[in-house]
Amino acid sequence: MSFTVEGQTVLITGAASGMGRLYAERAVTERAAAVVLWDVDADALHATADLLSGAGSSVHSYVVDLASLEEITAAAAAVRNDVGIPAVLINNAGIVRGKYFWEHDQAADIALVMSINTLALMHLTREFLPDLIAAGNQTRILNVASASGTLSVPRMSVYTASKWAVIGWSDSLRLELREAGHNHIRVTTLIPSYIRTGMFEGARGPLFTPLMDPADVVDKAWRAMLVGRARLQLPWSVALGSALRGVLPQPVWDVVAGRVFKVYSSMEHFTGRAR
Q: Which residues form a coiled coil (predicted)?
């Protein structure tokens, strides 16, 4: 029997806008019983909750700073009390800083990016995983990483580090669950290149890697999550780049990535979303 979100509770981080809101809309469209929205932007979060309300699913919104373990723990407790244990976790929230490493502020950039992009996924999943294991019901976890977690990218060292860690943790979690016999919980790691959400405004897609449409990425990621696919790399050139990096000597790969694919110059004109 295939997995469906119909009648289930879906929790989405970074749900106030962008792809997070698209995931929430998809959950409502597919008749989830409850959709739980987490975001730090209170105004945008409440606007999204209002937009989704009345469409059939109960909508629950929580203002959560994902850089804070205390807030994650408190919000998870509130979800347990208000809604119950989610059957679907979509770890979508993320931020980016596009500059040379030595230009990063240690608190506002390095610590914040690592906390939101990496640690928050671990903390949120850890909050609910024991309950999900004990329940024995079909569960899906979608962890959003990035193609920059597979290839080094200048002007994005901290973001790259955060997403590299997500890929390693997410796939290790998948294997641990399988090894322990918890096959009812499936973990999918999404590894996309640049997406047209505004987050990477000014970035230029490498060769064969145009900036992707958010709705198309969400559709593909959603379907991969439902069937429990282990890894989804988008577009196809991301897998090609990973393969070439693995077989080519480093000096040769630097030439290919820098001069042919233009990976190394993709962030030269990055401006990002206005904060």
A: none
